[in-house]
Amino acid sequence: MDRQNLTSQRRTTIYDLAQRLGTSPSAVSSVLNGSWRKRRISETLANRVLQAAEETGYAPNIQASALRRDRSNIVGMIVPKYDNRFFGAVAERFEQAVRANGQFPVITCTQRDPALELEAARGLLSYQVDCLVACGATDPDRIAELCHASGVPTINLDLPGSKAPSVISDSYSAARDLTRLILDACTRDLGLTGALTFVGGRLDDHNTKERRRGFVDAHAERGITVPAGNIIMPGYAAERARAALEALPERPRGLFVNSTIALEGVVHWIQSLDPDEAAAIRYGTFDFDPFGALLPQSVGMVQQDVDSLISEMLRQMRKGPGAPAVVREVPCILRARADHISA
């Protein structure tokens, strides 16, 4: 390849832009990082720099910039899944908030795999992220240890840890209130006063533990004991929820569904029943889906307040490294149906 082609394929630098415009590299850098007004650079020059950057396809070398400035202006986030509206909304709102804060968001999905979580954390740290947000991580403390060793602040979102600030939903109160709603609907519509069935989630998951606790306490308020067999936690997968319901010796008529993913399995199970049997079932779901809220047997859903979760995450992020490992709980929103059908 000749010298001319090599030159044409070389990355454009601020020095190239400065030479092209007849100004200094520091002036170009100030325009590109948004500090040109503080340096009293004219708007005319700023516009010329931005136009030249666009015409030449200039892109900053983020890693080199990070090495020079000891920061990258990047905020990283790991998420466990993209398979429900909650994590999708968290990722979208996170991007919006970080950009509005003048930083660049980077998100990677780790499939609830502890090894992938650590690999992703190490990768983000190699880019010298200003902060790493561990959303729904299976081992948040291990991630916090990696971040602390690198001097990078970390925040746990959705699931708490003990070595970094955590911002989570108040799963206990929301589950208790949702259980009350389902119990009321079962009594009013079906004449039932017994225990509901809790379906979905994992035994070792913090949020599931808190929701189960709220579920049991709401029953206890009414003098109802929940049998061990009424709490089935086969995971969150839809097919597992359906299989677990099909395997029960008696058909439950009141259900607390622990996630919209498990709800898919519940709906498939209900559709397999005789229409009259299906009509005599009531359920509520933790997490919100607009379509799921319209299904006839649904009496209500819990919506996690993503905007408030992200706002509190930003407040914790501004505290920087060494912030105390507090746990901030954000109230959820209970969305009850007013048009419950009667059996």
How would you describe this structure to a colleague?
The protein has 14 helices and 12 strands. It has 3 domains: 3-60, lambda repressor-like DNA-binding domains (434 Repressor (Amino-terminal Domain)), CATH 1.10.260; 67-164, Response regulator (Rossmann fold), CATH 3.40.50.2300; 171-305, Rossmann fold, CATH 3.40.50. Strand 1 (74-79), helix 6 (85-100) and strand 2 form a beta-alpha-beta unit. The longest helix is centred in the middle third of the chain and has 20 residues, at 171-190. With 343 residues, it is an alpha/beta fold. A 6-stranded parallel sheet has the order 2-1-3-4-5-11, with helices on both faces. A 6-stranded mixed sheet has the order 7-6-8-9-10-12, sandwiched between helices.
Brief account:
The protein is α/β, with parallel strands linked by helices. It has helices spanning 3-9, 14-21, 25-32, 43-56, 62-69, 85-100, 114-126, 140-149, 171-190, 206-220, 238-246, 260-271, 275-279, 306-317; strands at 74-79, 104-109, 131-135, 154-157, 166-169, 197-199, 231-232, 254-257, 282-286, 298-303, 327-330, 333-336.
Largest sheet report: 6 strands, parallel
CATH class of the largest domain: Alpha Beta
What is the number of domains? 3
Report the span from N to C terminus.
Answer: 79 Å
Helix tally equals: 14
Number of strands: 12
**CATH fold call of the largest domain:** Rossmann fold
User: Which structural class fits the helix and strand makeup?
Assistant: alpha/beta
- Run of helices and strands: HHHHHEHEHEHEEHEHEHEHHEEHEE
Indicate the proportion of strand residues: 15-25%
- Uncertain runs are 1-8
Biggest sheet strand line-up: 2-1-3-4-5-11
CATH H-level homologous superfamily name of the largest domain: Response regulator
CATH 2nd-level architecture of the largest domain: 3-Layer(aba) Sandwich
Helix content: 40-55%
Gross geometry = elongated
